[in-house]
Design brief:
Helices cover about 35% and strands about 10% of the residues. By secondary structure, the chain is α+β, with helices and mostly antiparallel strands. The protein has four domains: about 110 residues, no CATH class; about 160 residues, no CATH class; about 140 residues, no CATH class; about 30 residues. The chain has a five-stranded antiparallel β-sheet with strand order 12-11-8-13-14. Strands 3-4-5 form a three-stranded antiparallel β-sheet. Strands 1-2 form a two-stranded antiparallel sheet. Strand 6 and strand 7 form a beta hairpin. The longest helix is centred in the middle third of the chain and has 27 residues. About 10% of the residues are buried. GO terms for molecular function: structural constituent of ribosome. One of its GO terms (biological process) is mitochondrial translational initiation. InterPro entries: Rbsml_bS1m-like. One of its GO terms (cellular component) is mitochondrial small ribosomal subunit.
Length: about 525
């Protein structure tokens, strides 16, 4: 294995399945800071994302221990309901293949495929601490890696529409400058940037020429003249930019001294190097009057602008939105999606303290509960004893408030609740941030196939409801037809011409109208008596 393999046989082995596994990703940090400032880590905890590729084998080959590797694996070690392994080393000094089960991540991927949770872009917050509108991770302005498409979309964007969608690349070849150490940044400037001065000059000449062309075309449109410039005019502008290149660069550098990171030169450098968005927070932090505002600006400039380490969807789901309607085979279309049974990993109240929200385990991912409750209500709820022997276990899971308040030691299987997964995001460290809400009562009843309680509640509501008149057109409420007016509830018809028209008019508030109506009635009544 240590010899250099340059023979045809060695090259054949390098291109076979034995050597086709990708290199593992760097190990993620598992240490988390507690409320006391102490870092805790776990050797057996599931990693936030897989670092080794999981492989599987057909049942016929798995029975013989054939996994496509250098040597066969023992069937006793791979006999499982989820036969997926990850290989850490093909060979070692003891001539043993180092492998372990990969069911922790493969089962998570299978559960997410079953739940159908849409992946959206992470929420970015501005200086006002207000989250921007989120969209799908597969939108055209997000799911792209072509710098030319992004540049053309930005050039064609309407400047008078500040709410237009901004095109961005989720992956770029350039490093993240804010995450570099001082030594790494110096090496990057010395080895990567100094050799590209000529390329940058050509880029700036083309950029300045395009800007001059757009300005001239805009001026011609304002004057009502020809919209597009001719080829000779474009060549003249390009030659003028090449001649006055040093003066143009001096103007850009002077503007950069005043505008700092918001200058045109900064935008050109970011486009040339493919850098991620740079936000000017230095001046804002200096002018901040409170420590809280300084921390907010520091977080915006460091964490929120970090480039993503993976695709915004991370391959977990390919659904663009949760605006779908499930069609139950028996009950038909459902207003709510199918709920998921989540395990309460950490309730709100424990022996170590209290937290505003409970921690729920959904599909291999820990999420926060979307509801909180006061301590007084928790004390009242805690005094009620539960009968675990004579009551089905699934019925206790519907009491979401009690399940999330404290651990029920005597409950078989532990605390569980029904939730509806709404959406998820993948942060810059590759961790999944899941958003859930508590399950709907009718959706839970349909998932449990126990809808008798819903029918009984509806029947009780109908019995307590006030009596309503029967529908029109029925035997109890006969009518002349739906196309004819209902005259049974109107004033009775008289034999005096004009009297019915007078009574059918809407009442008026003016005294003159009432007096004229009274005179009309007396006149009609007097005429009828004389006849």
């Amino acid at each position: 294995m240590s010899k250099s393999m340059n023979s045809p046989t060695a090259r054949l082995l390098q291109s076979s399945r034995l050597f086709s596994l990708p290199r593992p990703l760097p190990q993620p940090a598992l240490e988390t800071a507690t409320s006391t400032g102490v870092y805790r880590a776990s050797d057996s905890a599931t990693l936030p994302y897989p670092t080794y590729q999981a492989i599987a084998s057909p049942a016929s080959s798995r029975f013989r221990g054939d996994w496509g590797l250098k040597r066969a694996l023992p069937a006793k070690s791979t006999r499982s309901s989820t036969p997926h392994i990850r290989v850490k080393a093909h060979d070692n000094f003891a001539h043993i293949t180092d492998f372990e089960s990969a069911a922790d991540h493969t089962q998570t991927e299978a559960k997410w495929r079953q739940m159908g949770i849409p992946l959206v872009v992470r929420e970015r917050k501005g200086y006002s601490n207000e989250a921007t509108t989120t969209g799908s991770a597969y939108d055209d302005h997000i799911d792209n890696t072509d710098p030319e498409a992004v540049f053309s979309a930005q050039q064609n964007a309407r400047p008078d529409n500040p709410g237009s969608v901004q095109w961005k690349r989720w992956k770029s070849d350039s490093p993240w400058l804010a995450g570099m150490q001082p030594g790494e940044f110096e090496i990057y400037v010395e080895k990567r940037l100094k050799s590209r001065q000529g390329e940058f000059q050509k880029f700036m000449i083309e950029r300045l020429a395009q800007q001059r062309v757009r300005d001239e075309e805009r001026r011609h449109r304002d004057l009502g003249q020809r919209r597009a410039l001719s080829r000779s005019q474009r060549s003249t502008i390009l030659q003028d930019v090449v001649t006055n290149y040093e003066a143009e660069m001096k103007r850009l550098r002077d503007d950069h001294t005043v505008q700092s990171l918001a200058s045109e030169l900064t935008s050109a450098i970011c486009d040339f190097l493919g850098l991620t968005g740079v936000q000017d927070s230095t001046e804002n932090q200096v002018n901040a009057k409170t420590e809280r505002l300084k921390n907010t600006l520091a977080n915006i400039s460091s964490e929120s602008n970090a480039p993503p380490s993976t695709h915004p969807a991370a391959g977990l789901s390919h659904i663009r939105t949760n605006a779908i309607m499930e069609n139950h085979p028996f009950w038909g279309p459902q207003a709510q999606g199918s709920p998921v049974l989540a395990r309460v990993v950490r309730p709100r109240h424990t022996a170590h303290g209290s937290e505003p929200r409970a921690k729920l385990g959904v599909g291999g991912v820990v999420a926060n509960d979307d509801s909180t409750q006061t301590s007084a209500a928790w004390q009242d709820n805690r005094l009620k004893a539960l009968d675990f022997e004579n009551t089905p276990i699934e019925q206790f899971y519907e009491n979401t408030q009690r399940m999330t308040e404290h651990i029920e030691v005597d409950l078989p299987g532990g605390n569980k609740v029904w939730v509806h997964p709404e959406s998820a995001t993948v942060d810059d460290q590759g961790r999944i941030q899941l958003k859930v809400r508590r399950g709907d009562s009718e959706a839970i009843a349909i998932a449990r196939d126990d809808v008798e309680a819903i029918h009984e509640a509806k029947r009780a509501a109908l019995r307590q409801a006030p009596s309503m008149p029967p529908a029109r057109g029925t035997a109890a409420n006969a009518n002349y037809g739906y196309s004819l007016p209902d005259t049974r509830y109107g004033p009775p018809k008289s034999r005096v011409q004009g009297f019915d028209d007078m009574l059918s008019r809407s009442p008026r508030s003016s005294r003159s109208a009432d007096a004229s109506a009274l005179d009309k009635i007396k006149d009609l009544a007097g005429g009828f008596g004389r006849k």
